[in-house]
Amino acid sequence: MIVLIFKLLGSLGVFLYGMRVMSDALQRTAGERLRRILNYMTANRYLAVLTGFIITALIQSSSATTVMVVSFVNASLLSLTQAIGVIMGANIGTTVTTWIVSLIGFKFNITAIALPIIGVGLPFMFAKTVRRRDFGEILIGFGLLFLGLMFLKDSVPNIKSNPEILEFLRNYTDLGFLSFVIFVLVGSVLTVVVQSSSAAMAITVTMAYMGWINFETSAAIVLGENIGTTVTAYLASLGTTVNARRAARAHFLFNTFGVIWMAIVFPYFIKLVLHVAPWDPYLVNDQGNMVNLPLNLALFHTMFNVTNTLICIPLISYITIAVTKLVKETPQDAQKEYRLVYISTSLQNTPELNIIKAREEITHMARVIDEMFETFLHVFRNPDKKMGNIVSDIKEKEDYTDQMQEQITQYLVQLSGETLSDANVKNINAMMRIVNELENIGDSVYKLMLLTQRKYDNKITLHPKAMNEFNDFVELIQEFIELYKQQMNEGLEPKVLDLAYRLENKINHLRDDLKQAAQERLQHGADVKSELLYLDLLKHFEHIGDKSLNIAQALRKVY
């Protein structure tokens, strides 16, 4: 039992890790072109539904589609409203699998190509260009995601191969509305256990074909499977952005809403399905099997999902509002997700107002990076402090500054298209440079944090002299950061820029002296790991100093 639990946890870990790898790689590689393509595919709610239907019909897995939708929302490639439309289409697309199972008893398993996808992506991981490596990560993320789904299915008791263990359910088919509730719950649990609505559907079709459950019972189980399949998307949304979690919650609300209204009209809907069916719905073969009952289920599944989608398409805006209220944004979410919306109006003074707004955002970016640096120093100077989630928190802030760089730069580019004075043109060019340099400092701080983690993990202790030198260097860096942070909303006076040059010279001279000191300690038998780590620290400190000077130079051009 313990081994089984860990197999399930490990499978879930592969699944979630694949989703995270794919999402992170998408954020790095999805340029404006891919964003435009996705936005075109989901330009309105009807196209979004069509997109979800086509994807699910092609890959034969609504779970995979909804997981991908969550990852796209997490990567900010889809809005919440677009995602809800795609999820609705995925529900219709999954009926294609039901028809295949019912007609020929065969289901194409997308997880069979998981390893080939990883194999295709692996060579890209060794490419020289970052873009190709990111593309490899996307493929590997997809492969791991599907591999995780496969492991989840294989790690649970094999109910699909032994449907007779559910034969006892026949005893609960004559309890009226209570039977409906019971079998909706059975369908939900069954889908959660096998981690696939398609697999759960195959089990249901098998039981119906064998005559163990009637059409009404099997239809109720199918409704429950629609609720159970939302668990996969929920698991995929763990640890993601607030909108990704809202997309997963919208999936649950949409499917649950369908089951609720179906509970009211269930007997009449069943009669409608049997009336519409172009075959004999009660045909029995020589072995006593209900030959066409699987087709009845496929028709029911299709009619239900199409009807539910048609009802909910006009309600997408209300669903969006509902999940926004249900899933509140936390302070951590506010930090993970950054959006800067460009102000576009016909007012003559709008460009100037936008420049002020851009300056405020750049100042905010400088504060975030300062907080990152102070956190690094606090952890580095307190070796007994547990690392906990501090490294991941710094990584989130570094990702946040990456988003700020992209959004603020895009904002400034849009602003540059306005009719501007020569002074404001210079302002925009200077601000673009500042944003880029701030992002580079954020990268260096994150690398300093990784060095700190390595120091703790490997129990590396700096030489006492090195620690004193470290503190001297830190004081210069802090002075430099404080200098440009205070001047962020105004241009630097010549005397302040002169101070920046003097600080840069001090940093360069101190760097040379400290490198020489480290080399001398190595020659006298100092710990190699300790001194090499110390040299790495100096390298990133110097990098921060260089970028700080560049910021000061750019601020001198801001009016």
Protein architecture, described:
This protein is mostly helical and 559 residues long. It folds into 2 domains: 2-332, no CATH class; 350-555, Phosphate transport system protein phou homolog 2, domain 2 (Methane Monooxygenase Hydroxylase, Chain G, domain 1), CATH 1.20.58. Helices cover 76% and strands 0% of the residues. It has 21 helices and no strands. The chain has helices at 2-29, 32-41, 45-59, 62-74, 80-104, 114-121, 130-155, 177-194, 197-209, 215-228, 230-236, 242-276, 293-312, 316-326, 331-336, 350-380, 390-416, 422-457, 464-486, 494-523, 528-555. The N and C termini lie far apart (69 Å). The model is unreliable at 31-35, 156-160 and 341-349 (pLDDT under 50).
Summary of the model, kept short:
With 559 residues, the chain is mostly helical. The chain has helices spanning 2-29, 32-41, 45-59, 62-74, 80-104, 114-121, 130-155, 177-194, 197-209, 215-228, 230-236, 242-276, 293-312, 316-326, 331-336, 350-380, 390-416, 422-457, 464-486, 494-523, 528-555.
